Amino acid sequence: MILNERDARHEHLLNVAKQIMTAARTAPKGKGIDIIETATITDEEITLLSEKLIQMAEETGLKFFLRDAENILSAEAIILIGTREQVQGLNCGHCGFPTCVAKPEGVPCAINSIDLGIAIGSACATAADNRVDSRVMFSAGLAAQRLNWLIDCKSVMAIPISASSKSPFFDRKSKEKK
Description:
The chain is α+β, with helices and mostly antiparallel strands. Helices cover 43% and strands 15% of the residues. The protein contains five helices and four strands, in the order αβααβαβαβ. It has a four-stranded antiparallel beta sheet with strand order 1-2-4-3, sandwiched between helices. It is globular and about 60 Å long. The mean pLDDT is 93.
């Protein structure tokens, strides 16, 4: 049997995406409380996400949404990592308020945000360990959040992945006119 890398690449990337989701799941969490959600999107869902980014660019006038809408089309898969909002009751003040009770509704618990960051770091390390190109994208995560793909998540980040001769996620061209 001869197995050409080009023929096995997509399946490999989907397997790595599963490993990335596991890495996010097993990353340390504040107080050991797991409020992380993950999912992987491919194919039509990537197109829908790109269309949502284009819509957001039109609504906001922010050109980087257009750049990222085009850029994610180069991804074979996109891992979504989000956090549900749950006050941890530590009264740490990291959210900007002295106690958890004083924190207004809608202001994220800093521990939730830290947990998301640790999960993203673990996920990206797993991508790197598998020699898969990745990039953390707040823009695509926000679009996924607006599409409500990770139900009840108040903060979502996206990690597109690719295995090509050169990473499509770096040296990206701005969509702004010069």
